[in-house]
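The instructor's notes for this session suggest beginning with a concrete chain rather than abstract definitions. Hand out the sequence below and ask the class to guess, before any prediction is shown, which regions might be ordered.
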Amino acid sequence: MTAKPAAAAARATVYGYPRQGQNRELKKAIEGYWKGRVTADALRQTAAELRRGTWQQLAEAGVHEVPTGDFSYYDHVLDTSVMVGAVPERHRDAVRADALDGYFAMARGTQDVAPLEMTKWFDTNYHYLVPELGPDTVFAADSAKQVAEFKEALALGHTPRPVLVGPVTYLLLAKAAPGVAADFEPLTLLDRLLPVYAEVLADLRAAGAEWVQLDEPALVQDRTPAELNAAARAYRDLGGLTDRSKLLVASYFGRLGEALAVLAKAPVDGLALDFTETGAGNLDDLAAAGGLPGKRLVAGVVNGRNIWINDYEKSLATLGTLLGLADHVDVSASCSLLHVPLDAKAERDIDPQIARWLAFARQKTEEIVVLARGLASGTDAIAAELAANRADLASRADAAITRDPGVRARTAAITDADGRRSQPYAERTLAQRAHLGLPLLPTTTIGSFPQTTELRTARADLRAGRINEAGYEERIKDEIREVLSFQEKAGIDVLVHGEPERNDMVQYFAEQLTGYLATQHGWVQSYGTRYVRPPVLAGDISRPEPMTVRWTAYAQSLTDRPVKGMLTGPVTMLAWSFVRDDQPLGETARQVALALRDEVNDLEANGTSVIQVDEPALRETLPLRAADHAAYLEWATESFRLATAGVRPDTQIHTHMCYAEFGDIVQAIDDLDADVISLEAARSHMQVARELAGHGYPREAGPGVYDIHSPRIPSTEEAAALLRKGLEAIPAERLWVNPDCGLKTRGWPETRASLENLVAAAREIRAELPTEAV
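After discussion, reveal the predicted structure:
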C-alpha cells in the first residue's frame, strides 16, 4: 500500500551535530592551543573548516536547514553564558584581557581562579558548565558568535537555522553564585533575561535568519505551576516581538507533559518534539491538545542517542499520524546528534552483518532524509530503502549474539539473598577496621593515574607489532611500580595500581565481556576536549575469564599497604555504552552484574581486601520524570548489590560517583550498601557532604577535595578548608580524603603536587582533632 504524500513537502533537518571532526581535529587543535603549539588564528581556522565540512555533508545528504550556533570550543551552555553576559566576577578580567583565554578560564580554571562547576546534561554523559547567577546579575547581549556562524553558513549557500539554549532552560540549569543564598532561584531573573534574548533574536533577524531554534529540554522534566507560567510568559514575550525570525521551540529527551499545552498555545511558529521511545506519550498529548494548527512541527522520529538503525515502517506510521496534527511536518532526530559518533562506515573491524544494524550521525542523517522523502512522496519513492531496512532489522532479531541460554538461565535463578551482604554495615565496619588498620581520615585516590605519552605509545606499539606482548607487559609493570612508589612516598593510605593497562573505564571491560562490541572511531564528546568511545552492547553478557585480577595481585605483591581492586559498575557499563534496545535495561544490568560478581569474588580470593565498583552514572541515568524513578532505582541498586554482595564482611566495598546532582538519590546511595562512597565535591563546595548528613547517611564517605577536571593545583590550605567543611557534616571516623575523580587526564607534575597537598591537608586536620578521636 502506498502512503499518501504530504500536502506540503516534508523537509529533513537536525538539531545539532558532532563537533570534533572525523579525526578529532577540534580536540587536537584546542589542546595544542592550551600548550602553546597552536595559535588562536589556527584554532579558529580549524573550527571554521569543521563547521564548513559539517554543513556541506548535511546539505549533500539532503538536509534542508543546517543548524548553526551548535558548534562549541567547549560547551554550548558556557557559550550561552557568554551570549547573555553572565560571566562570573572572578573571570571578568581574563575575559576582558582575551576573550578566548577568558572563555577557557571559565571552563577549566587557572592556578588562581576556580572554573565554573560542571555537571551532567540531563540524563546523558555530556557535561555542561553550570551558570552562576545571583540577584545582582546584570545580563548583556553578545550575539557575535551566533551571528558570525549564521553568516558563515549563509555565505556558503546553505539555509541556516541558529540554535540557542532557551531562556527558561538556561535559568533552570543555573545555580546560585558563590556567596549568594542557597535558596536563590535563578528563574526569578527571567524578566531581566528576556530583553537580552530579544536583542540576540533581533541581531539574527537583521543577519537574515528566517527561523531560530530555542532549545527547552528542561521542560520535559517535572515542572511546578510557577515554572510553567514562566515558560508561558517567556514565549508570550518572545513570540510577541515585532520584526522577528520565526521561532521553533525544541524539546527532547522525553515527554513534554503539561508543558506541551503551554508551548502549543504560545505565539511561536513551531515546535520540535521527541517521538521515539523516550518521548512516549508526546503523540497522544499532541492529539489531546488539538495539534498545532497554523504551526510547523519538527518530528524527532530517529533516535539521536543510540546507534541502532531506525525502523522505517514504524517511523512512517508515526509521521503519517502527525500529518493531521500540524500545518507542516518536518523530520529530524529526537535530539542533537552530538550524542552519537560521526560515521559508522569508518568501523572496518566490526562484522559486516552487525555493521548493517548501526547508524551513527551520518547514517542517521541519511535515515532522516529517507523518511522525509517517504513522507513527502509516498512509500513507493523509498521502496528499495524500506526493503533493505526490513532485512537489516530481521537480521538483528535473529542473530545468535543476542541470546545466550546459559546467561539467561543464570539471571533467572537470582534470589533476593544474592543481593545482600552476610552482615549489616555496623558489624562489617568493625571487621574492616581491624583488618585494614587505617588511620582517621584515610587518604586514597579514585583509581586512574595519568595516562602518559609513553603508555599510549606502548599500546600503539603493541597494536602495530613493534613490540610483543611480553615487552608491553614490562612497560605496564614499570608504570605500576612507579605509581605505587609515588603513593607510598606521598603517604597515601589505600593505594591503586593506576590502571596503566586500561584505555577507558567502560571500554576496557567491554572488550573482555561477551556480547559487547568495540569501535575504533566511535568518539563521543563527554566534556570539553574529553572524548570517549562508548562500546556497543549488542547481546547477552558474560565474563569468559578474570579481567583485572592479574594486575591488581601484581600491584599488591609490591606493597604492604592495601591496593584497591578497580571495577566499573553495571549501571555505568550500560549508561556509557550504546545499550541494546530489544530488552529491558534492568535485565541487561543483571547480566552485567553477574559478570562483575565473578570478578569481585576472584579479586577477593586473590588477596584484595578493598574493592571499588564505580557507579558515576547512577544519578545521570535517573529518569527525568519522578514517576519513573522508583522502578529505575530498584533495578539499578539491585544490580550493584548483586555485583558486590558475595564477599566476606572484612572486605571493604567502595563505590564512586562524580559530576551530577546527588541530593535526590541519597536514599539510593544508601541502598547500594557500599562501605565507602567517594563523590565529587570540590567545585560544589562540599554540597554533597551536607546532603549525605541531611539524609542521615550511616556509612563512610569521601567527598572530593581536589577538582581533577581543572589543571590548577589546589593548595594544602584549600584542601584543608574543604575537609573542615566536610567534617561539619561527616564525623572524622567516617570521612575519607580523596580527589573528585580519576587522574587519567592530568599530567604527572600537577598530580604529584596536588596529591602531596591533599595528604598534607589530611595530616593537618588529623592534628587538629581531639586526642580521643585520634
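Then share the key points. The chain has 28 helices and 20 strands. The first strand starts at residue 66 and ends at 68.
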